[in-house]
Structure formats: C-alpha cells, structure tokens
Design brief:
The structure is a single chain. The chain has 2 domains: 148 residues, 3-Layer(aba) Sandwich (Alpha/beta knot), CATH 3.40.1280.10; 57 residues, Trp Operon Repressor, Chain A (Orthogonal Bundle). Strand 1, helix 1 and strand 2 form a beta-alpha-beta unit. The protein has 7 helices and 9 strands; from the N terminus they run βαβββαβαβαβαββαα. The protein is elongated, with a radius of gyration of 23 Å. The structure holds 4-(1H-imidazol-5-yl)pyridine (4F9). 4-(1H-imidazol-5-yl)pyridine (4F9) binds next to strand 5.
Length: 238
C-alpha cells in the first residue's frame, strides 16, 4: 500500500514514521510519500492561498497550486481522499475497505479551505474522522494511515485485527495480566481456570455487557445468537 500525502505541513507527519507504522515502512509493507504543496507555488513568495471571492474571513488554498502538486504524483489507480468535516465519518468497515486499495492520495486542507474547483476535479471521496473542526487535515490523514495500515499483511501480529474491538462490531472484553493481585483486586477467577470454553463464554458476556453499558447503539448493528440474547436480558436486569 502506498500513501501520497498532499500537505502544506509535511513535518507534521514525522511522528508516524515512529513505532509500528515506521516499522511497516522500513519493511516496505507500506510506503509514505510526502508532497509539499508549497513546492508548487508559482509565486516568488511561495504563496499558496488567496482571499475568497465574494468576501469573508480567512484564506483559500488555490486550485492551480493544489492541482500541480496532485499531478506530480505517479500512479494510475490511486484513490484520492479529501479529509474534511463534510465527508462520511470513518468507521472500521470503511477502514477495512480502504486497506484493499493499492494507492491512496490524501489531500490535507488548511486555512478556510480549498478552492472547490480542484476538489471537484481530483477528489474521489471525502472522509471525516468525527464531528469537530481541526486546524487542518493532517491529523485526520494520520488517523486514516494508522487505522488502514493495521490491515496490511505483516504490519501486526497474526490475529490482532480479527479479535479486536469493532471487528465484531461490539466492544472488547476486559484484559488482565500479572500480578494476580493488584491493590487487593484479584484477577477474575475464571481466567485462571484453564477452561477455554468457559473463558470464551465469559469473555463474550463481558463484551456484550460492556457494549450494553457504554455504547448500546452498537448492539443494533450486530447479529446476536440466541445465547447472546438470553445473556443480554440477564445483564439488563442487573
Ligand atoms: C477533517 C475534521 C476530517 C474532521 C479538516 C479542519 C477535519 C478538518 N475530520 N478540520 N480541516
């Protein structure tokens, strides 16, 4: 998977070169290519924005500069994503879908926005990471790279994406490790029993309970077994 990032602030992406994503890049499992939009300014002062037609506050990134930066990217089958609060809100299903792309171009806006004509010309999809406004699209782009990269073969250890929260559409069960007693609190007895069938049942129940208490709206999106239904009824009476 290759990510091409169109941004005015390429330095902001240094942190994702660390940790797991950095390792994935070293292993050539993913490639992150930064394009500084400012390099495509035709202006002697390297200006990339101008005041909005029709008036109003702030500055607008210019269509021709953004377009020239975009045209410098190599590749034919790239999906172009603009990070904006106007997009569909990202979720795990979308993340998994995007992980099947061979190349993703991420357009990061700044200031009051980007001239609509270049958005209309190059963008395939608009994505938001939540209903709030940031100072730019860089942090959303990093969120997208992080979530999508986890699905690329070899980036995580085997099984890490299939067992987690949200891959089943509900929240995780609680996890414990040594010591067995912490501040007088013991690890749930069942986890020390070695009885895997009972442990799995207990974990499923804990996941259902967690979801019911913290994110009940998620329960509408998943298929519950007869056993799940019975257990949920019990949880609701607690
Ligand atoms: C992008 C906010 C995606 C949420 C881009 C200001 C943004 C954003 N999700 N806010 N520029």
């Amino acid at each position: 998977m290759r990510f091409d990032i169109l941004t005015l602030f390429p330095e902001m992406f240094e942190p994702i070169k660390q940790s797991i994503i950095g390792k994935a890049e070293e292993k050539k499992l993913i490639e992150i290519n930064l394009i500084n939009i400012r390099d495509f300014s035709k202006n002697k002062h390297k200006k990339v924005d101008d005041t909005p037609y029709g008036g109003g506050a702030g500055m607008i990134m210019q269509a021709d500069v953004v377009y020239d930066a975009y045209k410098s990217i190599k590749g034919k089958n790239a999906k172009v994503i603009y990070l904006t609060p106007q997009g569909k809100v990202l979720n795990q299903k979308k993340v998994e879908e995007l992980s099947k792309e061979e190349q993703i171009v991420l357009l990061c806006g700044h200031y009051e926005g980007i001239d609509q004509r270049v958005i209309d010309k190059i963008v395939d999809e608009e994505i938001s990471i939540g209903d709030y406004v940031l100072t730019g699209g860089e942090i959303p782009a990093m969120v997208l790279i992080d979530t999508v990269s986890r699905y690329i073969d070899g980036v995580l250890s085997e099984g890490s994406t299939s067992e987690e929260s949200f891959s089943h559409g509900i929240l995780e069960y609680p996890q414990y490790t040594r010591p067995e007693v912490f501040e007088n609190e013991k690890v749930p007895e069942i986890l020390l029993s070695g009885h895997h069938e009972n442990i799995n049942k207990w974990r499923r129940n804990q996941a259902l309970k967690n979801t019911y208490l913290k994110r009940p709206e998620l329960l509408k999106n998943i298929k519950l077994s007869e056993e799940d239904r019975k257990n949920l009824e019990k949880i609701k009476k607690m």
